[in-house]
Amino acid sequence: MSRAELKKVVVVEKIISGHMTNAEGAASLGLTCRQVIRLKKKYRTEGGAAALIHRNRGKKPAHALTDEMKERVAALYRQQYAGSNNCHFAELLTERDQLELSPSSVRRILIAKGIKQIKQRRRSKAHQPRERRSQAGALWQIDATPYAWLEDRALGFALHAAIDDATGTIVGAIFRPNESREGYSLVMQQGLKKYGIPLGLYSDRHTIFRSPNETLTIEQELAGETKPLSEFGKAMDELCITHIKALTPQAKGRIERLWGTLQDRLVIELRLLGVNTMEEANKALPALVLKHNRKFAVKPKKDESAYMKLDSTTRLEYVFTTREKRTLGHGHTLSYANKLYTFAKPTACRFDAKTVVEVRQTLTGEVVVWHDGTTITLVEVEKPVKPKQQKKKASSASPRKTASTYSWKATMKPQRIKRSTNKNQFQEAMYSQHNSYADVTW
């Protein structure tokens, strides 16, 4: 008997023996007087204290899981769903095996079978949470994380993604071999085409997002110089998106928590789909992102959207580019990446020689000139080949001939002239010695 049942027996026996009234017994048991009277009747007619034991004691509940069901659940976890957490495992059983089980039931079954969670949860540090933005599109958070998404079936690669701060919706995601400007650009293009232009973007301080020379000196600020932007930053500036660089990971905690969720769930989903390459993972990713958004996205505080409409004339492939200045030569030619280009349509636009233009290269490698919000297509031309001039080989110099009367030692050794007291005699001697050097034939 349980402690509660033993207490009932003691109180009922005291009431029957006259040491306690029905009202006092009801107060001590937390019951009504009518319930106490029923307990007294059951005690007298059905065999004493045994009558107060619960009737289901020792019986198996009607809704209890069978042993065969428990064995099947444990086998499915070992064979297919190993590594998934209890909530995700229960969802997968419902979705793929038509087994309606709660996460707590799944947890009890796994613990009873001696199966522990591979990923142990640890207590995180306390950080004051930042309140979500009130409107969808007010702020996006963007980041990338390298991970073994296909476990041991392939090498690890990086997932680039952006999430809306107000709703938790993944607005864009793509797998790339490494964290790169190309991956972030493709994620932004996905979100911009589907949802519109957000008011702000939150990222870390990677050099993809900021220039190493971003800090200006006081003299440069007084001179009116603007901060240099990275190629990605220039695209954000062109789209009028306020770009914020976080100083700590906790500042963009929304997307940092997203990585924990995706690393826990996405690995299992890709394994169940039989994905073995990064290309196959990118094909399966849109459906998995849609499934994630249906489960985890929340309603914003305000129904009004903060998204700006993307102009239909805006071609995003020419926004997310590399940009460099080049000087046009005669005939509208310019040099870029060791190649020579000219206008595909010479009559498209007229420029003077030595005009400085902006050259943009897209993610696909297309090179164009950007002028007044439009593109001028370029075509590659062959560089003129300069004829190689053959250098004349230097001939060996003929040996020098000297006069037969030339005496090296006698001629080159200067004679010592004694300074005479007679000035005229001394000058004549110096003049004659000078003439002797001039007669030498070299």
UniProtKB/TrEMBL annotation:
<dbReference type="InterPro" id="IPR012337">
    <property type="entry name" value="RNaseH-like_sf"/>
</dbReference>
<dbReference type="InterPro" id="IPR036397">
    <property type="entry name" value="RNaseH_sf"/>
</dbReference>
<dbReference type="InterPro" id="IPR001584">
    <property type="entry name" value="Integrase_cat-core"/>
</dbReference>
<protein>
    <submittedName>
        <fullName>Integrase</fullName>
    </submittedName>
</protein>
<dbReference type="GO" id="GO:0003676">
    <property type="term" value="F:nucleic acid binding"/>
</dbReference>
<feature type="domain" description="Integrase catalytic">
    <location>
        <begin position="125"/>
        <end position="323"/>
    </location>
</feature>
<dbReference type="GO" id="GO:0015074">
    <property type="term" value="P:DNA integration"/>
</dbReference>
<dbReference type="InterPro" id="IPR009057">
    <property type="entry name" value="Homeodomain-like_sf"/>
</dbReference>
<dbReference type="Pfam" id="PF13551">
    <property type="entry name" value="HTH_29"/>
</dbReference>
<dbReference type="InterPro" id="IPR047797">
    <property type="entry name" value="ISNCY_transpos"/>
</dbReference>
<feature type="region of interest" description="Disordered">
    <location>
        <begin position="385"/>
        <end position="425"/>
    </location>
</feature>
